[in-house]
Design goal:
There is one protein chain. The chain has 348 residues and is α/β, with parallel strands linked by helices. It folds into two domains: 123 residues, 3-Layer(aba) Sandwich (Rossmann fold), CATH 3.40.50.720; 164 residues, Dihydrodipicolinate Reductase, domain 2. 26% of the residues lie in helices and 22% in strands. The chain has ten helices and 14 strands. Strands 3-2-1-4-5-7-6 form a seven-stranded parallel β-sheet, covered by helices on one side. The protein has a seven-stranded mixed β-sheet with strand order 9-10-8-11-14-13-12. α5 links the parallel β6 and β7. The chain is globular, with a radius of gyration of 20 Å.
Amino acid sequence: MATKDINVGVIGASGYTGSDLIRMLSGHPKIDLKYISANNHAGQRIGEIYPHLNGKVDLFLEKWEDINWSAVDVIFSCLPHGIFHEIFPKLPAEKIIIDLSADFRLSSAKDYVEWYNFEHKSVETINHFVYGLTELNRSNIRKSEKVACPGCYPTATLLALYPLIADDLIDIHNITIDAKSGISGAGRSPKRDLLFSEISESFRPYSVTGHRHIIEIEQQLMLHSKNDIKINFIPHLVPMNRGELVTSHVRLSKDIKLNEIIEIYRSKYRNDNFINIMSNGNVPNTINVRGTNNCDIAVIPGRVDKTLIIISAIDNLVKGSSGQAIQNMNLIYGWPEELGLHQISIFP
């Protein structure tokens, strides 16, 4: 595609994902943010809802039905799960569409009934979307006009496990994932169990019998391993705004030295500027990726024979959502993937 300035619109701009997408798009040198929509806040300036955008993005929120989507080149959807699949057929079919919800991540409509509790209204177009984990699906994303961005937990988990799965180095029947996320991953809607007094000084697991990201992780692991895979996955809520730390416990299927494993990781991600393979005793920390599109990964030998621990950290709102969406847009247009995504973590 020609590398020219493009017009962009955002559906579902009033949530955390939408606001972070707007924040990053506002500094992107190739795009003009033309429309933003949020039906419940139509008529308000985005700066009224998010004061940190005041004076930086001078746009009014509109109802998505009132926007001329034919006037934009790329449409981002940041709607909650279970909404965009009904809206999608009403948008111009020829536009590049990047969906940040789960509505087009899964390959089977039946899985949406079981894991997301809704009947999919765009069954015939589910497979029109490619899975948007950029580092693992670059060739397909590059030539696609419809992208389904991964969930935050799947992003951190799949980037951590892919080198081992791709080279058949682990027992695929013995994978346990211990995941921790900041509360922004639960969205901006008010919920009693997310009140300050419920969250502060608290650290707890949730969805212990079946988090909905499990099916997405298993689907992608099976795609890369060519085998059936089931995982143990336990997410936890941590009293911080953003950030995600995922610790994966696996058993090696063959004898291999740690330095050889680390070299495999570096080889797999040698052209991926957002992936940092750590060594020399350094381990991921959410503060070091905060506000960035980076993923830090460390591989550590377990004390139990032939076991391995892989730790990965991302910002759930950036690499786990909006940043990866921009990375995919850059890829489709043939721009450097890092364009507009050069943020360095805010520390401390």
